[in-house]
Amino acid sequence: MKRLWPTGDRGSPLARRLLAIVAVLSIAVTGVATAVAFVFVQKSAADTQIRHLVEYVGERVKTEDRLFSDLERVHAAAGQALTRRLERGDSAADVRREFDSLYPDFGDGTRRTAPALFDGVRHERSFVYGIGGFLSRAPQLDDGDKALFVSALDVVANTGEAEVNHYDNFYFFTPQTRMVMFGPLRVDKLLYYRRDAPPTLDITHEEMTQLVLPHNNPSRAMRCTKLRRLISDPSSRALTAACMTPFYFHNQFMGAWGSSLSLNAYLLRAVAESLPGGRNLIVSDDGELIASQGLARDGVVDLAGLRAAKARNPIGDVVRQIHAAGDDVGVLRDFRGDRIVAYGRLTGPNWWFLMTFPS
Q1: Beta strands 252-261 and 170-174: pairing type?
Q2: Half-sphere exposure of 144 (CA within 13 A, CB side)
Q3: Are strands 279-284 and 121-123 parallel, antiparallel or unpaired?
Q4: Strand intervals (E) in the chain
Q5: Predicted local confidence at residue 135, as pLDDT
Q6: What's the mean pLDDT in 279-289?
Q7: Which residue, of 3, 58, 138, 302, has the fewest CB within 10 Å?
């Protein structure tokens, strides 16, 4: 019997084309499904990693911020101690006598601490050491100023000694360029303040002073500088950071407590302890580099080294991205798209702790 239509058997060109089309469609569907599954799995894995990274940087920031929260408590305790001493109300004659003993006339219009106060001397049944002080415009010091610095020296010596294992210096200063510091471990032995500083030394416009003035810091909170030159280093080669807290007595601004941060002891440790493949940085809220690996030597940073590190780490745009995100902790891709940046705010100094990874 003859067939009334084509059989389309498997050997015909049409059948082969149909099978090829079916095979291609099958492969395409399988490929699309595989690609979709891959993208989904990849995104899920990436989301999980990002979530874990946010949790990690959040916990890490809490750890690193402890240095500053502890320092806030140290400054607060020093403020309470100084208030108690000022409220004691010693007689003016006793204050003048003690002031002259602690801060003898240097002969150039300044008062500076007696040398024995750094080397070590028994004073008022206490042993005092590691102290250096500089008081400008000495003829203008009234009895209130003298009482303030007699009591401040006592508090600085006691507080500084108690906290020397955490902060290798502690000081009290006023905008009038008057300062008393505890720093027994300082290699310069505080000789700049005790002997070498010119009588014209003026810290009025220094960042450390501006940060504590009432109109700049109405909340009276601790504030920290960016990397800045050391006042005691006229060459301006060495840079370090410092944290200050204003001191008020009966609601009147009197001066501030301060501690310069040892970059070796804290900041470099913080940036050195990074996750595999990552790099840690600490930056200020306006995008200035504070710390990165290899930035400091002997606890300080030189200006040339800072400029080179800033060139290697263009962080200004990253900080602007962080501000735009509006979160204290998070993860973002940097503006160039080649790095992932996990970030967290160090609330004490208002800095940012950054962890960067190849994207």
Answers
A1: antiparallel
A2: 4
A3: unpaired
A4: 111-112, 121-123, 126-128, 131-135, 170-174, 178-182, 223-224, 228-229, 238-249, 252-261, 279-284, 289-292, 301-302, 329-333, 339-346, 351-358
A5: 98
A6: 86
A7: 3
d(CA 39, CA 324): 28
Spatial separation of the C-alpha atoms in residues 111 and 133, rounded to whole Å: 8
Q: What tens digit of pLDDT does each residue of 98-132 get? A: 999 999 999 999 999 999 999 998 877 689 999 99
Which residues have C-beta within 8 Å of that of residue 144, sequence separation ≥ 6? Answer: none
Q: Classify strands 289-292 and 279-284 as parallel, antiparallel or unpaired.
A: antiparallel
Number of H helices, E strands in the chain: 9, 16
Residue 151 · residue 134 · CB < 8 Å = no
pTM of the model: 0.79
Report the DSSP beta bridge partners of residue 178.
Answer: 135, 174
Residue 8 has pLDDT above 80, yes or no: no
Q: What is the rounded CA–CA span in Å between residue 263 and residue 143?
A: 38
